[in-house]
Amino acid sequence: MRERFSDGEAVPTQTVGVIGGGQLAWMMAMAAERLDLDLIVQTPSPDDPALALVDEGIFAPVADVEATRQLSDRASVITFENEFVDLEGLQVLADRGVCFRPSLASLRPLLDKYEQRQTLARLGLPTPKFGPLTTVEAIASDYGFPVVIKARRHGYDGRGTFIVKDEAQLRQLWPSWRLADLLVEEFIPFERELAVMVARGIGGKVQLYPVVETVQVDQVCRRVFAPAAIPETVVGEVEAIASTLITALDAVGIFGIELFLTANQQVLVNEIAPRTHNSGHYSLEACDISQFEMQLRAVMGQPLPPPQWLYRGAVMVNLLGFEVSESDYCQKREAISQIPGAVVRWYGKGASQPGRKLGHVTVCLTAEQWEQREAIASQIENYWYGQ
Ligand code: ADP
Prior knowledge:
- By secondary structure, the protein is an alpha+beta fold.
- It has three domains: 3-100, 3-Layer(aba) Sandwich (Rossmann fold); 129-186, Dna Ligase, domain 1 (2-Layer Sandwich), CATH 3.30.1490.20; 192-385, D-amino Acid Aminotransferase, Chain A, domain 1 (2-Layer Sandwich).
- 30% of the residues lie in helices and 28% in strands.
- The protein is built from 13 helices and 19 strands.
- Strands 11, 12, 13, 14, 15, 16, 17, 18 and 19 form a nine-stranded antiparallel β-sheet that branches. Strands 5-4-3-6 form a four-stranded parallel β-sheet, with helices on both faces. Strands 7-10-8-9 form a four-stranded antiparallel β-sheet.
- Strand 15 and strand 16 (267-273) form a beta hairpin.
- The chain starts with a strand and ends with a helix.
- The mean pLDDT is 95.
- Adenosine-5'-diphosphate (ADP) binds at residues 128, 148, 150, 155-161, 185, 187-188, 193, 216, 219, 258, 270-271.
């Protein structure tokens, strides 16, 4: 344990336990340094990104409750970078007094996408029409095609989301599915996808980050434009949804909320992540308080000032694996970092696989560059995916 000094007195640094040790925990560790907090992560492997920066690691899967018990011996608060946890197992620890933030009660309605949609509906928040998988005939008549089938749990980066184009394809896939593990929802022909980060403190204070536009390719986030170029009325609607949701769940921490915006300006919630989110990475460089610092401030009961822009805006591009390789892509990263305002964050994962998030780039934009944001994103993708 490190010590810090206050009025000449040595006081122990407070320790936060984090379930998960991927890139989100790695960036949380940067914020912990700023706030003079120690982090301990529970993560399967010593090669996981966060281990490069944190003080200690407990090497176990995120759903290993005994490992979380060990984490709780060393940390005053436990928070999450990964929600694929064993909630029932953790409840035993919570009943013994372990402090989880967000609380397990606020996570419970969110971990299963079907229950998440039910929660949204119960709160009167707009969400695509959804239901259980019954029969091919019922889905064809109730939802039409294309239709979306999703894994209720453990889906990420589009894994677990199937867009089925017609009845023949549905019939073909049907026998390979465990129906109880899936949900069906209407296909939304969205005009844009939006996202917002929302934080809430122990006293109930809510802080919002700007609403951003996300661009997915093959159901995986490729680009984020912050802020989104959308009417103020839509911004207000998204902010109201985010505040209502995090307050109704009485959650302490930070949530990432993904939404669809339709051609007639209707907003629908797609997904809630009860933690920091890819769509908020731009805040690390472009705002005075990053999403990672905001999460730590919230869970440690510190004040939550409103995050302020340091620039006109930002564009973030994910660097996704496009081949199986052990390369660290030094030359490509170097070329990208020459773009004015660009900061490359490389997660140090070692092995590349198609679709794997290896790093990201944020370009902080002046007012003049803002007009070039699409071109800047294309330039980054050309450097990264080009030969
Ligand atoms: P994950 O949890 O893996 O990120 P999502 O449910 O967010 O999965 O889906 C990933 C992407 O798939 C979305 O960003 C969107 O582009 C597309 N998608 C998901 N649900 C729908 C839908 N109901 N209608 C149209 N596109 C969808």
